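Workshop exercise sheet. Pairs work together: one partner reads the sequence aloud, the other fills in the structure field after running the prediction. Swap roles for the next sheet.
Pair: D.N. / O.F.
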Amino acid sequence: MVQLEAVLESSHPLAENDPARKGNLIALEVRIVRVHVEEELLLQGYEDRIDPDAWRPLIMSFCQFYGLGAKAHSSRLAEIPESAYRPRPRAA
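Structure field:
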C-alpha cells in the first residue's frame, strides 16, 4: 500500500456563479509532505523508488474501481444515477 501524507494549502470554491450549486462544490489544493510505502513495493536496491511491477494501484474511472486491467470491484458511487451528477438547468 502507498499512502500520501499532505498539508492543506488552499481550498477553492466551485460553481460560485450557479446559485443552485454554490457552496456545494470545493476543490482542495494539497502539498504532499510524506509518502508511506510498504517495503515489498520498493524497487530492490533502492530506498526511494517504487517497483512498477509490484505496485497495483486502485484507480477510480467513471465511478468504478479498476486496477491496471479489468474492473477490481464494485463501487457504491456507481449505484447513484448518472443524471444526479448533471448540472441543474439555470433559471432564466
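Discussion prompt: The mean pLDDT is 85. What would you look at next?
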